[in-house]
Amino acid sequence: MRYVDEYRDSHIAKGILADIRRSVTRPWTIMEVCGGQTHTLIRQGIDQLLPPEVEMVHGPGCPVCVTPLSIIDRAVSIAKRPDAILCSFGDMLRVPGSSEDLFMARAAGGDVRVVYSPLDALEVARANPDRTVVFFAVGFETTAPANAMAVRQAKLQGVENFTLLVAHVLVPPAMLAILAAPGNRVQAFLAPGHVCTIMGWTEYEPITESFHVPIVVTGFEPLDLLEGIHMTVRQLEEGRAEVENQYVRSVVREGNAAAMRVVAEVFEPCDRAWRGLGPIPNSGLRLTEAYRAHDAELRFPEVVAEVPESEVCIAGMVLQGRAKPHDCPAFGTECTPERPLGAPMVSTEGACAAYFLAGRRREAVSS
Amino acid sequence: MCLGVPGKVIEVFEEKGMRMGTVDFGGIQRRACLEYAPDVGLGSFVIVHVGFAISVVNEEEAARSYALLEEMGNLEGIDLPAEAPVTREGAAS
């Protein structure tokens, strides 16, 4: 496939790795924010091919992993209502709530449907005018324009039974929270290429200045990641802290104006709690006043009790890059992709699942 | 979650007030909303995320940056594990 296959060329990968080895003189800790990038790094073993000075730590860029327990519980509770149809991306169905996940809600008779696009959920609403369709709107800046368009179409065309359960999160506030946390080890970031395809990179410029950290907008194929790491190491070695763009085939500084316009019409920033990280100011999106009629939380104000997370699971430390998955006592024993204790073990983009699926075990990785 | 797959636009049409298209992903064809790719035309490559084209691939920039990568591939290599597994299938999950 064009723009995919050529970015997996092992000859070029070796050349980039060689140049990284030549340019590195001391230890650096780099965080890739996006879970999709984590998955490629671990599955391809890229982190193990890097020189020992370059340590990759894995960030919170997995929306499935950071959606709070209380919102999962709310989705489960809505899914069990006979007057509702819950539509979701497939990843969310196995995320454990406090006592059940969406698969269990479906087994108990709830109408839970997996969709590929929010526009598919809108079609479900058109086809079922007597029931309320709730689309579980999770995701980062990349996904917000699609979800915004679906609810905008619903309003324009009078599809009143289409609603969103919104759990959107934003990348820059999470990066700021990680940098400001005591004990932070992150010295540079690979910024997620598709988030920046929508938003551009102007929001990252003040972060590089305030914290003196290089940020390199990076794509998702193995060569993209290697080149992004290469550019980051160069900046670190030269003492520079700038935003650079590796993913030039998709990202421009100003982002996607058409998408940003619709997002700004439909959503507004709000404070949001991140599973494992806690509340972060202005780190989420909610529907604007004009679209509140399509807010599932107002349509179904179920009371959901706050339940504490598992005491064993260290997902929060993993999501902040302060621990590796195999540092967790439950990793691979009490907690596996089949029976996950924490969300990073559920999603294919979660760091714990990435380590588990790549066969990394506690005894095998002792460094 | 932020998965985006590049594909070629082979059809453009209007549906329910939205500009839509058919996109070919190496033989598999799917519909995508083109509202966020206003400049797209037949034959353009777009990156598609959850049924929406989120960008039109800048083919010039792609060619220019790939040429730089190829140059780096020609740099003298140093010892690496014999089976560097970076070309295994299926990186775009």
What distinguishing features does this structure have?
heterodimer, A: 367 residues, alpha/beta, Rossmann fold, five-stranded parallel beta sheet, four-stranded parallel beta sheet, 11 strands, globular, B: 93 residues, alpha+beta, SH3 type barrels, five-stranded antiparallel beta sheet, 5 strands, elongated, disordered C terminus
Describe the structure.
The complex is a heterodimer of chains A (about 375) and B (about 90). Chain A is an alpha/beta fold and about 375 residues long. Chain A has two domains: about 1-310, Rossmann fold; about 315-355, no CATH class. Chain A has helices at about 10-25, 35-45, 45-50, 65, 70-80, 100-105, 120-125, 145-155, 170-180, 195-200, 205-210, 220-240, 255-265, 295-300, 315-320, 350-355, and strands at about 30-35, 55-60, 85-90, 110-115, 130-140, 160-170, 190, 215-220, 245, 265-275, 280-285. In chain A, the strands form three sheets. A five-stranded parallel β-sheet of chain A has the order 2-1-7-8-9. In chain A, helix 1 runs parallel beside helix 12 (about 220-240) and helix 2 (about 35-45) packs parallel to helix 16. Chain A is globular, with a radius of gyration of 21 Å. By secondary structure, chain B is of the alpha+beta class. Chain B has one helix spanning about 60-75; strands spanning about 5-15, 20-25, 30-35, 45-50, 50-55. Chain B is about 15% helix and about 40% strand. A five-stranded antiparallel β-sheet of chain B has the order 3-2-1-4-5, with no helix packed on it. The interface between A and B is large, with 76 and 53 residues.
Major sheet of chain A, described briefly? 5 strands, parallel
Order of helices and strands of chain B: EEEEEH
Structurally, how many domains make up the residues of chain B? 1
Adjacency order of strands in the biggest sheet of chain A: 2-1-7-8-9
The overall strand count of chain B is 5
The unreliable regions of chain A are none
Low-confidence runs of at least 5 consecutive residues of chain B? 77-93
By helix and strand content of chain A, what is the structural category?
alpha/beta
| Order of helix and strand elements from N to C terminus of chain A | HEHHEHHEHEHEHEHEHHEHEHEEHHH
Distance between the termini of chain B: 9 Å
Examine the coordinates and then state which fold CATH places here, giving the name of the CATH topology of chain B: SH3 type barrels
